[in-house]
Amino acid sequence: MTSAKTFIAIRKNPYQLLKTYLIEMVILLALNLILLKWGTGFESFRLSFFFLIPLGVCFGLVVASSIHNASHGNIHGKIFNRLVGEFCGAWVLYGFSNFIMIHLLHHKHADSDLDPVNPKGIPFLIFLFAPMRFMIRVTINWLRSTHSKQKNFESILLGQTLIFHLNLMLKLIFWFLLFGPGVFLCFYLPSLLTNYGVHAHINHACHREREDGSIEILNLNHNVYYRMVNFFTMGGYFHKNHHTNLRLLNPMHLNT
Fold first, then answer.
1. Taking the CA atoms of the chain, what radius of gyration do you get in angstroms?
2. CA angle at residue 178 from 176 to 182, to 5 degrees?
3. Could you report the per-residue pLDDT of 174-205, keeping only the tens digit for each?
4. What is the dihedral of CA 40, 42, 47, 50, to 10 degrees?
5. Helix (H) / strand (E) containing 172
6. In Å, how far from its chain's centre is CA 254?
7. 148 phi and psi, to 5 degrees?
8. In terms of Cα–Cα distance, which of 245, 66, 93 is closest to 164?
9. Model's pTM, two decimal places?
C-alpha cells in the first residue's frame, strides 16, 4: 500500500489504525518471544561502546531523512519504499502509518490548528520535550472530526490508544533484546533522541512567525550545523523547497 493509500484508508476506515496496531502487536510479541527464547545473550558492557554514540547520532539523521522520503513515496521501488518506511517507523517507535498520517496532515493543513507539528507560539524547549503530546492531541481531534459519524468511535479510539502505547513498549523491548544493553544505550538511544530532536527543530526553525502573525517557511543552510545536518538528512532544513515540491528526494536540488 502506498503512502497516499495509507492516508486515505485511515481517513475512510475508522478501524484502520486499530487494525494496523493489532497486527504490529502480534508481530512484536512473536519477535520478542523468539529473542527471549533463542537470543544469544548480552555482551558485557565495554568502554569501547561509547565510540558508537557519534555513529548513532548520524544514523538518527539518516533515519529522519529516510522515513520522511518514504512517506512521500520518494524512494525508488514501491516495495522497497514501504520496507524502508516500516523499518524506520519501528526504529522511531511510533510506526510508519502514524508518520504518514501526521506528516501528510502537516502538508495539508500547514501552520493551522489541524497541523500536528505546528510550532506557532510554542517555545522551542517545550516543543522539543513534548512533541508527541502535541501531535497526539491534534491528530486525535482530526480523527474524531473525520469519524464523527461512527457511533462507537470513542471505544475504537480508546482501544487504538492503549495498543499504540503497548506497541511503544514492545518496540523498545525488541531493540533492547536485539542489541543488548551496551549497543542499546550507546547506539540506539542516541539515534532515537537525535531523530526526535532534529524533526522538532526542523519544524520549529523552518516555520518562522512574522510580526503580522503569518508564517514564513524557510530554507536554512547558513552555518556548519545546518550544512552538516543537511548532508546527513538529504536537505532536511531545505524546508521551503520541500513544501514547494514534495517529490524531491533531496530538496537542496529544487532547481535541478
1. 19
2. 55
3. 999 999 889 999 999 999 999 999 999 999 89
4. 80
5. helix 153-183
6. 24
7. -60, -25
8. 93
9. 0.90
